[in-house]
Design brief:
Number of domains: 2
Strand content: 15-25%
Distance between the termini: 45 Å
Strand order of the largest sheet: 6-7-8-3-9-10
Number of strands: 10
CATH architecture of the largest domain: 3-Layer(aba) Sandwich
Order of helices and strands: EEEHEEHEHHHHEHEHEEHHH
CATH class of the largest domain: Alpha Beta
Length: 259
């Protein structure tokens, strides 16, 4: 699905991503973990077209997509969410979802005047789709609530719902669990798992909650200092001394020697 080949993203002399290479398999839920400043979000931004790479390449289904803008990647089925949800706060949850699909008939002046029947049919279809998504995410009771009034976890669910309004192939989730209470985090996890198993979504997620990662992700990729440090199952990652050192600043042997 996605292959990243020797990717660099520099900001002046700072190498936020420093030669990272990785693969995300079709149908997987891949975890991306690492200490703060490891380059995870910058890597997401480059893959998703928000930042151009300094060098290196990104491939999707074998095709070079390096540097393509987000709207082109969106139409190819590559979507991402953000650490802070980007909702339209004054619009209802249902309206937020209906805004997602591009090239709607009502966006042109000609159709606004002469294609009202087509617009009405399209809006009815979008309304049904939005209600299906809200029901899937178990937040149908919030369909008419302004998105700005939602809790942090509910906003994360709504943002996940936005990816369901189009034909997403792969979704990059940037700290979907940040600031979310345990009950809603479980709901989000259930939705991600169902989208993967029932609808064939491929996911790659940045997350600091290792229990959440362990529940959903295989494989798990670890980044440190802009590079890929390790890849494996959650148990392999937790027992990898280089990973422990990257997170805690000391290896297992040093910990044992001082205990």
């Amino acid at each position: 699905m996605i292959r990243v080949d020797t990717l660099h993203r520099h900001f002046g002399g700072f190498r936020a991503v420093d030669g990272a290479s990785l693969e995300i398999a079709t149908g997987s839920i891949t975890g991306l973990v690492g200490p703060n400043g490891a380059g995870k979000s910058t890597l997401f931004n480059v893959i998703a077209g928000a930042l151009p790479p300094t060098s290196g390449h990104v491939y999707m289904d074998g095709e070079d997509i390096t540097g393509l803008p987000p709207h082109e990647l969106f139409h190819r089925g590559l979507l991402r969410t953000f650490q802070i949800a980007h909702e339209f706060s004054s619009m209802s949850c249902r309206e937020n979802l209906m805004m997602v699909p591009g090239s709607q008939s009502g966006e042109t002046l000609w159709n606004a005047w002469f294609g009202r029947g087509r617009i009405a049919e399209e809006e009815a279809s979008l309304l049904r789709k939005a209600d299906e998504v809200l029901d899937f995410l178990t937040i149908s009771h919030l369909k008419d609530e302004k998105a700005g009034n939602l809790s942090g976890g509910q906003k994360k669910l709504l943002e996940l719902g936005r990816t369901m309004m189009v034909e997403a192939k792969i979704v990059f989730l940037d700290e979907v669990g940040a600031g979310v209470n345990r009950t809603l985090l479980n709901t989000i996890g259930d939705a991600i798992k169902r989208l993967n198993e029932e609808r064939g979504y491929t996911f790659c997620m940045i997350e600091h909650d290792m229990d959440f990662i362990g529940r959903l992700c295989d494989p798990v990729i670890v980044m440190a200092e802009g590079r890929v440090l390790a890849k494996g199952t959650i148990d392999e990652i937790k027992s990898n001394e280089e990973v422990v050192e990257a997170y805690l600043g000391t290896g297992l042997k040093n910990k044992e020697a001082t205990s």
